[in-house]
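A brief tutorial aside. Many learners find it easier to grasp structure tokens once they have seen a single protein encoded end to end. The record that follows does exactly this for Succinyl-CoA--3-oxoacid CoA-transferase subunit A. Read the sequence first, then the structure, and try to relate runs of similar tokens to stretches of the chain.
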Amino acid sequence: MNKVVSGADAALADIYDNATIMLGGFGLCGIPETSINALVRKGVTGLTCISNNAGVDNFGLGLLLHTRQIRKMMSSYVGENAEFERQLLQGELEVDLIPQGTLATRIQMAGMGIPAFFTPAGYGTEIAEGKEVRVFDGKHYLMELALHADFAIVKAWKGDRYGNLVFRKTTRNFSSAMARAGNVTIAEVEEIVEPGQLDPDQIHVPGIYVHRIFSGGPYEKRIEKRTTRLSKAE
């Protein structure tokens, strides 16, 4: 039952070339940055990465883009990464843009064992090409398939040696669903606590979904896009 490993390199040791990987977080909030750095060191290539966004240049998934380790990105928002844009326009990167609600639900359905669902998002656009369409109450819906991954990598606030996870505020976005949708789920946490120290009512991901856990950090509190204005005195 002790799922604690020594660090990121040990936790990610069996990730292989051409694997499909989910990476949690929202923007730069709650991304598994220690694990991403380990993937860069490991040098695996041909990765399909499922993440809400593609990080920024030189941080987060931007690091894997610069080292050309990502073959395909499946995301809903990618507007803050110049290298991503360059690779996309040059035909060097395969991209599947997915409406954010659809992306989140496809991941949730995988964790729940539901193979497909219907949504109106994307009907009448390029997103609908090749997908089954049905009409419910006079409205058109696309059939979307659940989204699975070989590995799911998430960052949590706290965890115990059984793999139970607690996220903090926005960092819970996508991560709790992804942890249920990977064949192998790896969690890096800010703090590993003793069993019994986590309130059962506050656990966001039960340890049954988590295969490995390690203590990451130190973590950098980055601001994805800083907006400032002059003070009145100026």
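Self-check: The first helix runs from residue 8 to 11. If you spotted this yourself, you are ready for the next section.
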